Amino acid sequence: MGIISALGEASGEGGYATLSFSELQEATGIEDNGHFNYHLKKLVEEFVEDREDGYALTLAGIRAYQAIVAQQQLPSTEVAPFDLHSADECHCGGVIEAWYENGRFHAECNECDESIQYYPVSPRSFDVADPDTLVTAAARRITRDESSMVRGVCPYCTGNVTWSFEMPEGYWAENGMQQEDIVSHVACDDCAWFMYGTIGGKARFNTIISSFLATRGHDPWREPPWGEPFEYTERVLSDDPWRLELTYELEGDELTVTVDGSLNVIDHELTEGAVDRED
Ligand SMILES: [Zn+2]
Ligand SMILES: [Zn+2]
């Protein structure tokens, strides 16, 4: 870890560093040549590339360095519960509280304990003394990961993802979450990173849906991802193959989209003034 970190820390503008044997040894602080060489040899090929001009991280080495950096400060960083002002009050009338613990941002109702959000956020991405910066960092992170998943790319390892709409029994009960009518589950085929959520909420990152929402004051890229301040309904048209119909309603306009099993929009219809006419 020291050798990988030293190569990572020596990197900066313009790319990852290449260090000579002695530069790398000095950076790791291991004085004994044989001891240092023994550990370096173990890393060469898989994590460290032995080049003519020195040693550099391989792609696996870069991934390992990222994991080391992400892990630093995790155990020591905590933010005590505070009111999450940007979220609506819970349907039970309770107040949504947020806090940071064990590397994760949490948001939960203080009355009914319903979990609103639970997601890893780097302790380096916010100021522990300022809870607003934690809220912003969590919102950015979740938005990035959800939108990447909707585009079919794992935000962690860049692998392909697979969507499913079936619920493992007891998941929501275990996590204190309330089950929606249909819940989406998306998992990386390679690293198994997964996310749960409502279909209508996840699908908002689709261009057609996001532009409908954004031009009516609800930009999904800027609003906190746990709010869902827009109305929508969902309907299963077919489960083999999956065809789901989502209807979003804002400012009297209605957007109806049909999505497939990967949340790709395969059909859509915009009806402006739809709600007024019905009234
Ligand atoms: Zn509640
Ligand atoms: Zn992955």
Short description:
With 279 residues, the protein is of the alpha+beta class.
Q: Your description of this structure?
A:
The chain has 279 residues and is α+β, with helices and mostly antiparallel strands. Among the domains are: 2-71, Winged helix-like DNA-binding domain superfamily/Winged helix DNA-binding domain (Arc Repressor Mutant, subunit A, Orthogonal Bundle), CATH 1.10.10; 201-278, no CATH class. Helix content is 29%, strand content 29%. It has helices at residues 2-9, 21-28, 33-43, 59-71, 131-150, 171-174, 199-202, 207-214, 274-278, and strands at 18-19, 48-51, 54-57, 79-83, 96-101, 104-109, 115-120, 161-164, 183-188, 194-198, 231-239, 242-250, 253-259, 265-271. A four-stranded antiparallel sheet has the order 4-5-6-7, covered by helices on one side. Helix 1 (2-9) crosses helix 2. It is elongated, with a radius of gyration of 23 Å. The structure holds zinc ion (ZN) (2 copies). One zinc ion (ZN) is lined by residues 90, 92, 94, 109, 111-112, 114.
Tell me the total number of β-strands: 14
Shape: elongated
pLDDT < 50 runs, ≥5 residues: none
Task: Provide the succession of SSEs.
Answer: HEHHEEHEEEEHEHEEHHEEEEH
Largest sheet: 4 strands, antiparallel
Instruction: Please give the radius of gyration in angstroms.
Output: 23 Å
Number of helices: 9
Strand order of the largest sheet: 4-5-6-7
- Quaternary organisation of the protein chains: single chain
Distance between the termini: 65 Å
Helix-strand category: alpha+beta
- Overall mean confidence score, pLDDT: 88
Distinct small-molecule ligands in the complex? zinc ion
